[in-house]
């Protein structure tokens, strides 16, 4: 797909859940070649912002586009394969092995599942490919999530607390993934409490408090 210069564009966006407003008056853009760190306290709206950009949450008001697809339209379905989203909690099926999780993810993303084993090897889990996800440590499951992203080669990389529960080798892996995505003309958004780690790879940072960017 052709990547626009502005990968994320939000204008006066709000997100509500029932009577609770989680995000309000959000104006936010992310351009090709940027890695943006988003900092804020628990409950400030960081994860909701990331899920909004991932097209997993619909805005209650305002307008925006992700990779050129307008929010609140069916066009977002077409750009989802170009978005690499890694949440704070691993999203693996516990009854499947690590390799089976990656192969299933590849099929759902309409990608070649043959690269699953090499992706696991690239994150240091080649020897654990046939282990059930439920029998893997939290750190191993997190590494598997990053293997998913490596397989996809996304244009837009969205990471929630990306350095949490990782050893130094895995931290280096995350940073290299961010740099690779940005260097290829894509962009990354990282939400975190870990300012030093994110500052090491971010090209700029923003703050979020009470659902508003500052």
Secondary structure blueprint with pairings:
Blueprint: E1 6-17, E2 20-31, E3 35-39, H1 46-53, E4 61-66, E5 69-70, H2 76-79, E6 83-86, H3 98-108, H4 116-122, H5 138-152, E7 156-160, H6 168-183, E8 187-192, H7 195-199, E9 204-209, E10 212-213
Parallel strand pairs: 3-8, 3-9, 6-7, 7-8
Antiparallel strand pairs: 1-2, 1-4, 4-5, 9-10
Helix pairs in contact: 3-5, 4-5
Radius of gyration: 17 Å
* Quaternary organisation of the protein chains: single chain
CATH architecture: 3-Layer(aba) Sandwich
Top-tier CATH class: Alpha Beta
- The topology string of helices and strands comes to EEEHEEHEHHHEHEHEE
Instruction: Please report which band the strand proportion falls in: under 5%, 5-15%, 15-25%, 25-35%, 35-45% or over 45%.
Output: 25-35%
- Count of runs of 4 or more consecutive helical residues: 7
* Count of spatially separate domains: 1
Predict the CATH topology: Rossmann fold
- The H-level CATH homologous superfamily, spelled out, is P-loop containing nucleotide triphosphate hydrolases
Average residue pLDDT: 93
Helix content: 25-40%
Overall SS class: alpha/beta
Q: In angstroms, what separates the terminal alpha carbons?
A: 32 Å
Strand numbers in spatial order across the main sheet: 6-7-8-3-9-10
For the sheet with most strands, the description reads: 6 strands, mixed
Number of E-state strands: 10
